[in-house]
Design brief:
Layout: H1 2-15, H2 22-36, H3 43-55, E1 70-74, H4 80-95, E2 103-107, E3 113-115, E4 125-128, E5 131-134, H5 139-147, E6 162-166, E7 172-174, E8 183-185, E9 200-202, E10 206-207, E11 210-214, E12 217-219, E13 224-225, E14 228-229, H6 230-237, H7 247-253, H8 265-283, E15 288-289, H9 291-307, H10 316-319, E16 343-346
Parallel strand pairs: 1-2, 14-15
Antiparallel strand pairs: 2-13, 3-6, 4-5, 6-7, 8-9, 10-13, 11-12, 11-16
The protein binds arginine.
The site of arginine has 9 residues, from β14 and α6.
Length: 357
Amino acid sequence: MQQEAEAFIHQCYTELGKSSQIEKRIAEVKDSIKHAGMYDHTFEELEYGAKTAWRNSNRCIGRLFWDSLQVQDCRGLKTEEEIRDALFYHIEYATNKGKVRSTISVFNPELEIKIWNHQLIRYAGYENEEGIIGDPASVEFTTKCRELGWEGERTSFDVLPLVIQIGNRPPKWFSIPKDIIVEVPLRHPEYDWFADFNLKWYAVPIISDMRLEIGGVNYKAAPFNGWYMETEIGARNLADEFRYNMLPAVAEAMGLNTRRSTSLWKDRALIELNQAVIHSYKEDKVSIVDHHSAAKQFQLFQNKEIQCGREATGDWTWLIPPVSPATTEVFHQSFNNRMDSPNYFYQEKAYKDWKPE
Ligand code: ARG
């Protein structure tokens, strides 16, 4: 921890123009690690760390806005109920009635707080004889929720409860109040029949199962959000065969020949699905970015980084959008996929070793 902490303090105070304080702060941190095996970040360090972790997220195309991340310091919270309320607050604050604010809530790294959800807001998936109702990606977690006593309504879009566990205590689940969740019913600017699919999606993707690592400290509960790029919903969540698999139905309704791949029915259905997502979010005044704008913004981010004497790292396989990738500039570039620190990491599923009584 010592080494990572020192490197972080150096980087943080240098970038913030406070080099003169480095020596004193490092002495303090060293002392704390020696006596407590741990050190606490000041709010300024935490804020810088969370923002920089975003800046270093190689797979994210939205990094132009890294410096505007809103950091909520939730390190003082101790009970499941306090944590629940902070998560409710995060949802409301980040949603901001549709004008989405990129936000992270950082919880105490020493309390072993585990948020079981992959995203704070996500739809349940139920497996039965006929197939799957809802989001197939949620089947495993939905089963856990049901084992804990939660019951969904079994619609295609049941919002899952928050599940919070502290240490080895039994996990607690909490339904999210409907009035703090914004959802967008999907319709198409030209095809009236599109609304009859009764598709919708939620406004804000809040990733809640990643670990934030800053200067040797692991924040395992640190949910964060940005706003959606339309392809995430229109080309993946609703389109993937192993998700909502809507392309065949959309293509049929468009009157395309789905027997021949040469009709490009998948491609044409994909475009209309994405068009519907953009149209609906825009009309409802919920933040969304299209993949062309996002790619342009990423270009700006890269330029800014160079001006600051850094070079943006990146994971090309994730940065290119899944729709018309070659029409964006990112497609024609290559990136160094080195993982700089601070950063966000995948971690084991919080419910991996949990068994119902
Ligand atoms: N792709 C994920 C989803 O569709 C969300 C990942 C984060 N996305 C973002 N725009 N910050 O739910």
